[in-house]
């Protein structure tokens, strides 16, 4: 019997946090525990991971297609050792080609990038999730313009992968406003998180779809996401689990002391 895997949208924390426990202590302990629990939730070892990273945008949907992706340290101002961390998971040129073909079958343009390495939207999630780095990982970019409809539609086209042992993960952050953190983030992050919970957990699929298309009208939406790069991976995860329910698999009201953040599973 084929196991249909769920999809995920995960809040990936901040910077290279898995390698900064000496500096940050248990700040990310709840997030780490939620990622470590995902293999139990899946119940089987996936054949591969397709990661939609909030840190990669291209004119067309683009896939990392190298067999042995390197590392892309796309952050600045962190300790020197964080620019030498490794997550040596293999890539999967075959999966990258399959995803390209699925998108193209839906009249979307897609490209392969054999040089793209893992950015921190990917390796900070994968290190706690599968620390052995023994599962192939392919990154999928977002499409410039960050149109919700386009990304939901892309997720729909990729849904067959779930029946082939591929887990689709959207990696972003449910609240991402680098200029409004700490005390000023408390109220808007909770308002937007409440809207997310209602939309993703308690709305029928057609209502969920419509609310996501109009996400910028949600309470505190543009405070939570002045730019929606860290929200759009959610659209792919929801699209790939179109008519299936959602579950909150991680939530904190006091992330980094004050911010409400969440992660979700669909299916």
Structure, explained:
By secondary structure, the chain is α/β, with parallel strands linked by helices. The protein has 9 helices and 8 strands. Strand 7 (246-255) and strand 8 form a beta hairpin. Helix 2 (29-42) crosses helix 4 and helix 5 (148-158) runs parallel beside helix 9. 48% of the residues are buried. The mean pLDDT is 96.
Q: Can you count the helices?
A: 9
Number of beta-strand segments: 8
Q: Which strand-content bin applies to the residues?
A: 15-25%
Name given to the CATH architecture: 3-Layer(aba) Sandwich
* Low-pLDDT residue intervals, each spanning 5 or more residues: none
What's the mean pLDDT score? 96
Largest sheet report: 6 strands, mixed
Radius of gyration, whole Å:
17 Å
The fourth-level CATH homologous superfamily is LigB-like
| Main CATH class | Alpha Beta
Described by the principal axes of the CA atoms, the overall outline is: globular
Report strand order across the widest sheet.
5-2-6-1-8-7
The CATH topology name reads Protocatechuate 4,5-dioxygenase, Chain B
Strand-and-helix sequence, N→C?
A: EHHEEHEHEHEHHHHEE
Q: Given the helix and strand composition, which structural class is it? A: alpha/beta
Distance between the first and last residues' Cα: 17 Å
How many distinct folded domains? 1
What level of helicity do the residues show? 25-40%
